[in-house]
Amino acid sequence: MADWDALPKLASSRRITVNLNNVTSAPARITTVTTDSKIFIAVAATGVVVLLMASVLVPISLALTYTGPFTTTSLSSITTTTDTTTTTTTTTDTTTTTTTDALSECSSYTTINDVTRLTTAGSGSGCDTAVFNSTTACVRFSGAGGTQLATSAPASNQCTTQAPGWYSGSLPGSGVSNNETVCYAWSLNNCKWSNTIQVTNCGSFYVWGLISPPVCNLRYCTA
After folding, report:
1. Which residue windows are transmembrane per the record (predicted)?
2. How far, in Å, are 36, 41, 73, 149, 192 from residue 212 at the CA level?
3. How far apart are CA 135 and CA 138, in angstroms?
4. What share of the chain is helix, strand, coil (3-state, %, to 5)?
5. Number of domains present in the structure of the chain
6. At residue 162, what are phi and psi to the nearest 5 degrees?
7. What tens digit of pLDDT does each residue of 137-159 get?
């Protein structure tokens, strides 16, 4: 009887031991699984982030470096050009001229035929301050007294005066009027005195716009 009574106790004791082992070992396995799961989730999340970043950065990189057949402009080849305009001002000395169509002197003038004005005439005391004044007089020389003013310097005491006057400028072309200088020769100076006159080429003759000489005895000479 004593041995049989002991059997239930032993059996009961074994069942309790088994249950206790099961209860105490379960939390250890759960803890292990939970830690491994966290590591796996962290690694997986990191991989997903890397893949997402790669999916964004790679196309952008390719787009910036791609120079395929449809690319027409390269950012590195754009050149800005600034056009600079330089303005150059040229100053030209000109002589004002007027055509005869706009001038009255070719049809309205005074004719002078005076052989004493020729450069071949001798000395004298003639003075044109008594003939001309400050107002321009249009004169046409003609006949034996010469057809134009002398264009080279005569000697002193010619043209029936002491200081003969001669035209020192260039004669204008047909239909043109110029302002030029008359010089008066005295002693060794071919242009001791001077004044400005106007000369007009009327085609077959010249008309001279004469004024009074600076002093006496000065006179316009002809040739």
Report:
1. 39-66
2. 129, 121, 80, 15, 16
3. 10
4. 35, 20, 45
5. 1
6. -90, -40
7. 999 999 999 999 999 999 999 99
Residues 6+ apart with CB under 8 A from 169: 178, 180, 181, 199
Give the C-alpha separation, 203 to 189, whole Å: 33
Q: Backbone phi, then psi, for 141, in 5-degree steps?
A: -85, 140
φ/ψ of 163, rounded to 5, equals -120, 95
Q: What DSSP line would sit under 116-142, residue for residue?
A: GGBTTS------GGGT--SS-EEEEE-
Average pLDDT over residues 75-102: 40
Amino acid 114: pLDDT: 98
Question: Which pLDDT score, from 0 to 100, does residue 46 have?
Answer: 72
The residue assigned the tokens 């000109």 is 94
- In a domain, residue 14? The reply is no
Does 21 fall in a domain? no
What is the torsional sign of CA 186, 189, 192, 194?
positive
Average pLDDT, integer, range 74-100: 40
Query: The pTM is what?
Result: 0.55
Whether residue 162 is contained in a domain is answered as yes
Task: Give domain status of residue 177, yes or no.
Answer: yes
